[in-house]
Every structure is written in structure tokens, then in C-alpha cells.
Automatic annotation (TrEMBL):
Gene Ontology molecular function: thioredoxin-dependent peroxiredoxin activity
Residue ranges occupied by any Thioredoxin domain in the UniProt entry: 3-156
Principal EC category: oxidoreductase
Function noted in UniProt: Thiol-specific peroxidase that catalyzes the reduction of hydrogen peroxide and organic hydroperoxides to water and alcohols, respectively. Plays a role in cell protection against oxidative stress by detoxifying peroxides and as sensor of hydrogen peroxide-mediated signaling events.
Organism of origin: Comamonas odontotermitis
Subunit structure, interactors included: Monomer.
SUPFAM superfamilies named among the record's database cross-references: Thioredoxin-like (SSF52833)
Reaction equation(s) it catalyzes: a hydroperoxide + [thioredoxin]-dithiol = an alcohol + [thioredoxin]-disulfide + H2O
Domain of life: Bacteria
InterPro entries according to UniProt: AhpC/TSA, Peroxiredoxin_AhpC-typ, Peroxiredoxin_BCP/PrxQ, Thioredoxin-like_sf, Thioredoxin_domain
UniProt name for this protein: thioredoxin-dependent peroxiredoxin
Similarity comment text for this entry: Belongs to the peroxiredoxin family. BCP/PrxQ subfamily.
């Protein structure tokens, strides 16, 4: 089942670094940021991870949990996380279950060959488990600030409603 904006996330469960299990229900009551990236230790993905790292305290202050997702295995994620001193966990989606659920697996041309790759994308899930916003096929510069702005406005809307 695919994800749809303004609809609850379908059921899922995934393993993350730090021995964490992440599911559609594991972060109820909290804003969830899931960012999908192609591969650990590549230039764009490293830059993106460092930008989420550098703004992490702001995300937490705004009530959000951040997770990076790629098809890399747990060992690769642990190394990447340690090397960059990432304060958030990375989900190892080696079987591409989450990638397919979020529709981020795309055909790409790499060195003249067709390959399946991950389209850099970010998804913002509300505290009630509903997908609130998505950014697909994005460029790294300025993106993390844009997501943080969306999280802060979601938090402000929650306070008004309370």
C-alpha cells in the first residue's frame, strides 16, 4: 500500500541503528521526519545527513523525531552514523519495503546504464500518524531548513488547536 498525503501511514515496521524498531505506531504523539537518501558515504547524502545533524536540536525542540532511511545495511549505517556523529537513527531498509511503500524507488541512468535507485525524498508525519507533507526528487541545499519550517508551523498549529 502506498502513502498518500492527508491519510494515515500504512502499517510498517523497520529496524534502525541503536537497536530501535520504528513502526507506524512507534512515534504516536510525536512529529516524524523520514528522509530517504540513496547511499551512505556519498557526497550529497553526507551533506544532507550533516545538515539534519546540525539542525537536530531544533527539530527535537519542535517536537519531531528524525530518521534517515536508505537501502544500506546496519553495519554501513552504524559506520556512517559514527563517522558523521549523527544524533538520530538510520533505518536499514535492505529489502526496500519502506522505499516501495513511500514510492521512492526510481529508474535512474548511471554511467549510461539503467539502475534502480532511491529518489531523495522527505516525508513529514503528524503526531496522529497522518502523512502531512512530502518533498520528492529534492535538492539538498536549503531543504533541511524548509522541513524544519514545516515542523515548526505544524507544532504552532497544534498549540492553537489545544
Amino acid at each position: 500500500m502506498a502513502v498518500v498525503v492527508n491519510k494515515p501511514l500504512p502499517e510498517f515496521e523497520a529496524q534502525a541503528t541503536g537497536g530501535l524498531k520504528v513502526s507506524n505506531a512507534s512515534h504516536q504523539g510525536q512529529i516524524l521526519v523520514l528522509y530517504f537518501y540513496p547511499k551512505d558515504n556519498t557526497p550529497g547524502c553526507t551533506t544532507e545527513a550533516m545538515q539534519f545533524r546540525d539542525k537536530y536540536a531544533d527539530f527535537v525542540k519542535a517536537g519531531a523525531a528524525v530518521f534517515g532511511v536508505s537501502r544500506d545495511n546496519m553495519k554501513s549505517h552504524d559506520d556512517f552514523k559514527g563517522k558523521l556523529e549523527l544524533p538520530f537513527e538510520l533505518i536499514a531498509d535492505t529489502e526496500e519495503k519502506l522505499c516501495h511503500m513511500f514510492g521512492v524507488v526510481k529508474n535512474k541512468i548511471m554511467y549510461g546504464k539503467k539502475v534502480k535507485g532511491i529518489e531523495r525524498s522527505t516525508f513529514l508525519v503528524g503526531p496522529d500518524g497522518v502523512l502531512m507533507q512530502e518533498w520528492r526528487g529534492l535538492k539538498v541545499p536549503g531543504h533541511v531548513e524548509e522541513v524544519l519550517k514545516a515542523v515548526k508551523s505544524m507544532k504552532a498549529a497544534q498549540k492553537k488547536a489545544a
